[in-house]
Amino acid sequence: NKPSWYGGFFVDSFVHATAMLRAVLGGKKGAKTISAITSSRAEHIPSADTMAANVEWESGIQGIISCTVILQRKLDGPGYNLIVNNDEVEEFGFGGLDAEFLSFAEACESSSSKESHRNSPEEAMMDLALVEACLNSGKERGKQVVL
Questions:
Q1: Is-contact 37 51, C-beta < 8 A?
Q2: 63 pairs with which residues across the strands?
Q3: Are 51 and 17 in contact (CB under 8 A)?
């Protein structure tokens, strides 16, 4: 519970949402500015797990991103428990990662597939830069970060 760097699970999960947002809202352009508030609400996640942010994309689109990664893995089978209102538990089933792994393997084997290169390395770095900017802004209680 003492991470060597700030971000942990939040970075691992949010970078995928960031890629989707950039693809839908920004295209080849990334975010321009971000102002975020982050917090750590779950005892089982040692760093930031919740965020609300104002973002402006290079394309001129402005919006608000709100996310949380507070999920507890069920020990008695596939799925996750979402805890709401501090003690109420909602259970969500999960079919597993088989289809995702098969799709990844197929993309790796087929270098000619359009599906296999959804993000360039430069786009991946833009996505990660946005996640890092969110965390840095959150540490400074919402100070605007220019990317």
A1: yes
A2: 55
A3: no
